[in-house]
Design goal:
The protein is of the alpha+beta class. Helices cover 48% and strands 10% of the residues.
Length: 713
Amino acid sequence: MAPPIFVSGTPPAESLTQPLYINSWAGETDPRVIFRNIVQRPRHKATGETVSIVGDHDPALLKYFDCTRSGPRSAFDGNVVYQFEIMEYILDFGFDRMGANGAEIDHPVLITEGVCNPVQSRSKMAELLFETYGIPSVAFGVDAAFSYKYNQQLGVCDKDSLAICPGFSTTNVIPFIDGEPVYRGSCRTNIGGYHITDYLKQLLSLKYPYHMARFTWEKVEDLKMEHCYITPDYASEARLFQKGTKEAEDKTRSWQLPWIPPPAEEPPSEEEIARKAAIKEKQGQRLREMAEAKRSSRINELENELHGLEFLLQQLEQVEDDDIPSFLSATAYVSKQEVESARQKVSQSLRKAKGEPKGDQVEAEEKIDLAQNEKFPLIDIPDNMLTPDQLKEKRRQLFLKTTSEGRQRAKQKRYESELEQERKNQQDEEKRLENPELYLEQLRDKYKELSEKVEQRKRLKTNGNHTNGNGMSGAVGRGERLSAAQRERMRLLTTAAFDRGKGEDTFGARDEDWQLYKLMSKDNDDYDEGPDQEEAELTRISSRLQEIDPTFVPKSELGTSQPVEVPRFRPLTKEDHQIVLGVERFRCPEILFHPNWIGVDQAGLDEMAGNSIRRLPSVGQDVEERLTNSIFLTGGSCLFPGIAERLEAGIRMIRPSGSPIKVVRAVDPVLDAWRGAAVYAVDPQFPTQTFSRTDYFEKGEDWLRRYQLRYSL
């Protein structure tokens, strides 16, 4: 008979990091094939061809295949196989690496599965093995049971024992009586090493969001295996880290990320400063030359345009008034006044470009405006003495004269304002020269006083003229926030609406009705006028303080009493690239005892042990004591330091006083399940525990529901 093959249908005792697939011939001392139980299907970058990669891909494949778009896929949902297409890829790869690559696999197969595996999953696995690979027989066994039997032979645990298997995705508790599992008393919690890794990854990502790209799944697993532990008392350990004692510092670990210190900035040498100054001066000279050339070109253009307009005016002097429109039809102008206005604008632009004084400019403008006033002869003539065409021309001349006078008044007001500003600046400068310190102090006091006034006015404008007694505006209604002019507008609108509701609507029939719109459009509220004088004065004082006091910081906007804080950026240091593991070291594995911390409303390890003992059918007190006296730990997640002591303390709290409690761990929690199955497969009685292909075709899949492997041969 061909030697049996042991195949791990589920991860043997489920490793701490990833579910592993292990193949070997029965009776071998070491596994022959070990790889991660995942399949990836990347595309070739050049040809687009899709290939299947089982296990971890070689980093060299990244040169040829795009592995980023196709993530790794597993055949398992928890510890149950449900993707048999992926499982077929895994079995092909495992059998091929063992040399069993013929058309049929003429070897019995022992395959592991989870506790109380669904019949649908077991039947689909049998269908795959029998019909695809043509194996002669198959046997299904629980991985934790194989690990228990192997350690029982080594004398680690007793015949009556309680096996607890915290694995990768689930945690199982199986009671053994007389060396056989009692599945009626078994328990399962959907918490394992996967959830611990994911929880640690989330905590580190929240703690260091700017290093999230560094927290890959593989790196977080390494950190978990290297640094995590289970504390006997979580609350006292957390208080220890909260107080920041010396013991907590000793338990803290740090992971240094790659970091290159920035190059030290040396002060520039005198030669470098001189070189930069020469370059800056050269650039400034070039800009000045360009500006001068542009200015000369602009002056030439304006002079040519001014000469053309003066020549056109000289020609218009020789043309009759009635022939002027036809004479100007070939130009862009329609009247002599428009030509004169254009000549005035060009003359102003030319004087501005040449930098002539403003006094001369205003004087010249006044002379031009006086000359223009003589060009409106129809204004003083009564309307009854004018023809319709002359009336139309009179209205046009009146409009032009009014516009010209308005411009002149605006210019005069602007000129007077500039003179007043210049006079104030001269007075301030004289005061500053007499006593600089006193002048600066007075200017600051005035700035503070005006600032408070403007802030108070803005608060009153927003909240009304009511205060709460503390100088601060109180909470008032919308009606109280309205100004006097706004309240008057509201009264007029209300009155008009009330009057329109009485009988026939005759509003607008009289001229007096339209005065209502004029009244509503007026706003005599001081707060709604143009720029306030106090605000303008505050702006002037602020600019003056900036000139003479380098330490003065103006307010960013009126109404704020604190200067804006400019964010300061410091260069990243070595400490910024350190990942510190403190409470995370024991907080993440603690979910094995408190699954509700991550939203899983199930029991922890210690509570599961008590539930399993209570589920046993009518066992005596002596049997319960024998079970608690030999609590057997297996599975990758029991490798955390301190788990045996914590589990013993938790079970002691739920058991009667004086009950014997002893917790032992497997010799190799990860591979003892494989070793137990390999020893079981070479036993002479192993063929009697298999399910043959003949039984499969004769009895069908339903017979697998009653199939159960006997572990004591």
